[in-house]
Amino acid sequence: MSTPKPSGIELYTPQFYAACTLGGIVACGPTHSSVTPLDLIKCRLQVDPTLYKGNLDGIKSIYTKEGLSKIFTGVGATAVGYSLQGAGKYGGYEFFKHTYARALCGGENTASFRSYSTGIYLMASATAEFLADIMLCPFEAIKVKQQTTLPSFSTGLVDGLKKTIAADGVGSLYKGIVPLWCRQIPYTMVKFTSFERIVEKIYSCLPTPKQQMSTLQQIGVSFTGGYLAGILCAIVSHPADVMVSKINGENKNGQSMAQASRRIYKQIGFRGLWNGLTVRIFMIGTLTSFQWLIYDSFKVYVGLPTTG
After folding, report:
1. Is the Cα dihedral 143, 148, 153, 155 positive or negative?
2. If one looks up domain 14-301 in CATH, what number appears?
3. Among positive and negative, which fits the CA dihedral 122, 96, 127, 77?
4. How distant, in Å, are the alpha carbons of 108, 186, 270 from that of 100?
5. Which of 83, 123, 198, 201 could form a disulfide with 225 if both were Cys (CB 3.0 to 4.6 A apart)?
6. pLDDT (tens digit per residue) in 235-263
7. pLDDT in tens, 51-77
8. Cα–Cα distance between 292 and 283 in angstroms, integer?
């Protein structure tokens, strides 16, 4: 781990975790919001694969039939939900990674850490995402419902929350929590663990040790590792992502999550679980790479070392 620049922030202190939490907000909120048009097309194709021929056709169709502003349908819920999720995911990952490393190995810089590191990355990312999704779920429900109802059932985030709570109760905002966990927890486990391993491999192949590399070079490694990790994330979590879109896009509240999942699977089959995968690979690869770019740039800005 490279030595942080003097900033008054010591590693593994409340200030350190607060900085990482803020970095997660900065990394996730704006990036997810920026790809709302792609997310909109992806969600609609998951619900109805015949709706558009592809990304450009979808954007063109929405622009022509619904207007320019509708290309960013769901952006408010996306911005709030994924800012909260980013806070919990990145800040939580740093906290649980060090906590588990200290419990199992005595710390991240001990000789035994390498033997347990993969397990620690997996446990830390899973724990952080489990908690982060509790904050994300209501906003993800509103976002998906806005994007998959034609015309959209609400004019914005606040209107969507009011209508959903009035019609179905607060509990309906969490009807997708289980498939969200099924999507996001494997996604984040792959995202953080593969990132750590890919970055480690890149550094091991370079002639200059990380500690002697410039900040720009280290950020470049983070960006590359993030994109490769993002591709793996998209593939692993896509079937659950389809389920989240289908369940949140429906109004059938009388079924359990297992019943709804079985019914939807009978409708779409195994092949249907992969609807919109190409769009999602492009979207998630881009998202993940820029998230790591922004997150590590923010850490460097406040005087902390890059991740990895």
Report:
1. positive
2. 1.50.40.10
3. negative
4. 9, 19, 37
5. 198
6. 988 888 888 777 766 655 566 767 888 88
7. 998 888 999 999 999 899 999 999 999
8. 14
